[in-house]
Design a protein that fits this description.
Blueprint (H helix, E strand, L loop, with lengths): L1 H12 L2 E2 L3 E6 L2 E9 L2 E7 L7 H10 L5 E5 L2 E7 L6 H19 L17 E5 L2 E5 L1 H21 L2 H25 L10 H12 L8 H32 L3 H7 L4 H9 L5 H21 L1 H4 L3 H12 L3
Antiparallel strand pairs: 1-2, 2-3, 3-4, 4-6, 5-6, 7-8
Helix pairs in contact: 2-3, 4-12, 5-6, 5-7, 6-7, 7-9, 7-10
Length: 319
């Protein structure tokens, strides 16, 4: 719904629009309009960080209190406007734009005027850098496009799915550590921490130079689910081990005397008919959180060479 609102409003104002975002040039500022999620539309602009401070934010917050929430992170000023009620969105976008273009110069907040690639001035073009349009040089955009294509070619020729899978497994296990710590020491499960598992797995795959083809999202999803399975087993194993240690302090020695190991005994106990049902029941919530985490970061883990090639083509075409 948000993209449609932006597109309709942009066409009504005669602004540049690529279907997912719109662009306005005014007073030296490059204003970008886009939807970060289904609940908000953002008006964003790249500003010089040394002209932004808490006093400026307080002034803008006061001016925009009936329109949206304002913030600035790493030189990107954003005003988040709720998409409900929809009938008032055009007026809110108009108001946010007018307030920003009036208040920013008054408060001394200056637009960025250096290239987002080389950091030099005298820009003759602009480009989309993440969610926001920023100044750029035409030559830098061409060089960036060539660099991306060269990286894609190198990845396709020298990358390894096998090494990528190894990296994804290691990354997934590392991503499980925060969830294990909170479950073991705080006796709680945080759904937010499960976002780390697919993210860590994805970056592990990239770190080990895995081929970034269409199979990447599937590989990351499978390994994330397997990592969650290992996470639950580790937690349950630790819990059973502690319970046995408290109830039978010398159980390891007794098992060793009989030729058995504590490791094998505990796993047999966990998968016994009496405890198997509890084990699988304890897996339901973590797996739901893992699936939720995969959905939450799907935009990241589904980025492949195809997406980067499209980015290179966009830069080469002058967008």
């Amino acid at each position: 719904m948000g993209n449609k609102i932006v597109t309709e409003w942009a066409r009504e104002k005669g602004l540049e629009c690529d279907g997912s975002s719109a662009l306005m040039l005014a007073g030296g500022y490059i204003c970008t309009y886009y939807c970060p999620d289904s609940n908000n539309i953002c008006v964003a602009a790249a500003v010089k960080q040394d002209t932004w401070n808490k006093e400026v934010q307080a002034e803008l917050k006061k001016a925009l209190k009936k329109t949206g929430a304002v913030g600035c992170n790493k030189g990107i000023l954003r005003v988040a406007i709720p998409t409900f009620p929809r009938k008032a969105m055009s007026q809110k976008l108009d108001a946010a734009t007018q307030i920003l273009l009036a208040e920013l110069p008054r408060l001394g907040v200056l637009p960025v005027d250096t290239c987002c690639y080389c950091g030099e001035g005298e820009c003759d073009d602009r480009t989309r850098n993440g969610d926001v349009y920023c100044p750029a040089h035409t030559r830098c955009k061409g060089q960036q496009s060539e660099k991306i294509l060269a990286e894609i070619e190198h990845n396709q020729q020298h990358g390894s799915i096998l090494l990528g899978v190894v990296g994804a497994i290691l990354g997934g296990l590392v991503g499980c550590i925060p969830s294990f710590i909170t479950a073991h020491f705080l006796d709680m499960i945080s759904g937010w921490l499960f976002l780390l598992i697919p993210v860590a797995s994805y970056f592990g795959y990239k770190l080990f130079k895995g081929v970034m083809n269409a199979a990447v999202p599937i590989i990351i999803s499978i390994i994330s689910l397997l990592s969650t399975f290992v996470l639950v087993l580790s937690y349950e194993y630790t819990a059973v081990y502690q319970a046995l240690s408290e109830a039978y302090p010398g159980f390891q020695e007794e098992l060793a005397a009989e030729g058995d190991s504590a490791f094998g005994y505990i796993f047999d106990l966990m998968f016994s008919e009496e405890l198997r049902g509890d084990l699988f029941a304890d897996m339901i919530v973590p797996f739901l959180f893992c699936v939720g985490g995969l959905i939450g970061v799907w935009g990241l883990i589904s980025k492949t060479n195809k997406d980067r090639r499209l980015e290179a083509e966009r830069l080469a075409s002058g967008q």
